[in-house]
């Protein structure tokens, strides 16, 4: 029993002596990424307390668990030098700090020294948009101050070099009829030194809403009718324009219901709903009717609500002996003066 205890004690003592000799204190170096090949990190022989002769005699070397031998030891100087450039973003991504663990190995006796290389970020990446162009559709009815999130530029460098989210907002009301399109160039500039930048072109298309009623080309229409004119004669044509787009700008014309001498206006005239031409339903007798008025409506096909405008057309019968003159414009809404029968023609 006593022999067994003695053996175990000796084994434990050997274990602790081995651990003490093989794992030494940690050494850390700090370098920027992208150091060129051959750059000196530090004098590792001196930091380990080794003479230059021991570098060769004890076979000082660097072991890496990453699979890549980024560093080696200069036998002549005992310096830790860079074997190949290190890209911090590829090695550590966004992790901070970026540490590369190494082991310095010396023999006779065998010793392992833990070494950490901290790789510091430099501004070596330019901000990048996923695409160089974008089209943004905004309805003209959007409220002033509305904000829209745009694609942010990506920068694999770490803060404070990274790019913040980008937003664009409206400063006032939009009017597609005046400004249907805006072109903006976004410049993404990082906070590095020196700063790096890129740009993205944004086209803002203002989409149409039905916010404009049709507008007649004239304020009013006065039509002189020749007595005994043929059925379906064209009395006059009205026209209106709608500055909106597509269905919002498509116009239909109609004559609003009214009566002339207790007879529906539809018995006297009808209108072509597409082109605004007004036709007579029959010939007119001056002795029975000298003047009558009709009200024409122009309505767009907008959705969800259509808009309309109205105009008056005064049909004047100058008498059987007079020739039919052209339309006289405008009738300003202050009443119609009818020419007397014996008024001279001009």
List the helices and strands and how they pair.
Layout: H1 2-22, E1 23-32, E2 40-42, H2 44-47, H3 52-57, E3 61-64, E4 71-73, E5 80-82, H4 88-92, E6 99-106, E7 111-120, E8 133-139, E9 147-150, E10 166-169, E11 181-189, E12 197-207, E13 215-216, E14 221-224, E15 234-237, E16 240-241, E17 251-255, E18 259-260, E19 263-264, E20 269-271, E21 277-280, E22 291-300, E23 308-316
Parallel strand pairs: 1-7, 8-12, 14-23
Antiparallel strand pairs: 2-5, 3-6, 4-5, 6-7, 9-10, 11-12, 13-16, 15-21, 17-22, 18-19, 20-21, 22-23
State the gist of this model.
By secondary structure, the chain is mainly beta.
Describe the structure.
The chain is mostly beta strands and 346 residues long. It is 10% helix and 36% strand. The strands form 8 sheets. It has a 4-stranded mixed β-sheet with strand order 1-7-6-3.
Features:
36% strand; 346 residues; 10% helix; four-stranded mixed beta sheet
What structural class do helix, strand and pairing data support? mainly beta
Number of strands: 23
Strand order of the largest sheet: 1-7-6-3
| Beta-strand fraction estimate | 35-45%
Ends distance: 146 Å
Radius of gyration: 46 Å
Coarse shape: rod-shaped
Poorly predicted segments = 1-22, 321-346
Helix content: 10-25%
- What is the element string, with H for helices and E for strands? HEEHHEEEHEEEEEEEEEEEEEEEEEE
* Mean pLDDT across every amino acid position: 81
> In DSSP terms, counting alpha (H) and pi (I) runs of 4 or more, how many helices?
4
The biggest sheet amounts to: 4 strands, mixed
